[in-house]
């Protein structure tokens, strides 16, 4: 629940920032000189890119949470079996061991979104965020019946 609140607060702050930046861009355009209009248009591009990025991330999180809820209802969420250091950090060898099992599971069932979901969690636990995101996108695409890029 804390992560959801943090995400909502961060998204709200970003939207306020986009509005402020956008209003400055409009003010620059209204000044009417070639230089200020050029800067105004450039400044307006930033909130557009930011809103698009925020929207795509919100969609991704929503879809991943939907898959997690469905997998939880089936009783298929992976159990946290990772060893931790006294400070609470994940033990690297433990994460690698779990990752190897999840990768083998995914290789055995490459068309099962559930195995890709669990592989995404294993990537995340191994601190490989880019691959975790790609694996989760793959799981979402398989779940939704969309074509999957190899």
Explain what the structure shows:
There is one protein chain. The chain is mainly alpha-helical and 150 residues long. It has helices at residues 2-31, 34-74, 92-108, 113-125, 129-144. Helix 4 packs antiparallel against helix 5 (129-144). The longest helix has 41 residues, at 34-74. The chain crosses the membrane at residues 7-27, 33-55. This is Tetratricopeptide repeat protein. Keywords: Membrane, Transmembrane, Transmembrane helix. It comes from Streptomyces phaeochromogenes.
Lay out the secondary structure.
Layout: H1 2-31, H2 34-74, H3 92-108, H4 113-125, H5 129-144
Q: What characteristics describe this protein?
A:
150 residues, 5 helices
Q: Strand tally, please?
A: 0
Query: Taking all residues together, what is the mean pLDDT?
Result: 92
Helix content: over 70%
Give the SSE order as H and E letters: HHHHH
Concise account of the structure shown:
The chain is mainly alpha-helical. It contains 5 helices and no strands. It is elongated, with a radius of gyration of 21 Å.
């Amino acid at each position: 629940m804390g992560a959801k609140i943090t995400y909502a607060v961060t998204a709200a702050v970003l939207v306020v920032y986009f509005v402020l930046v956008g209003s400055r861009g409009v003010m620059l355009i209204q000044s009417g000189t070639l230089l200020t209009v050029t800067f105004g248009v450039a400044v307006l591009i930033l909130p557009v890119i930011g809103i698009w990025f925020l929207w795509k991330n919100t969609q991704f999180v929503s879809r991943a949470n939907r898959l997690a809820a469905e997998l939880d209802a089936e009783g298929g969420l992976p159990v946290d079996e990772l060893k931790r250091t006294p400070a609470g950090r994940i033990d690297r060898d433990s994460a690698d061991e779990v990752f190897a099992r999840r990768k083998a599971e995914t290789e055995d069932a490459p068309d099962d979104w559930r195995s890709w979901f669990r592989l995404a969690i294993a990537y995340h636990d191994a601190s490989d965020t880019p691959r975790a995101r790609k694996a989760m996108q793959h799981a979402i695409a398989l779940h939704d019946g969309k074509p999957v890029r190899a």
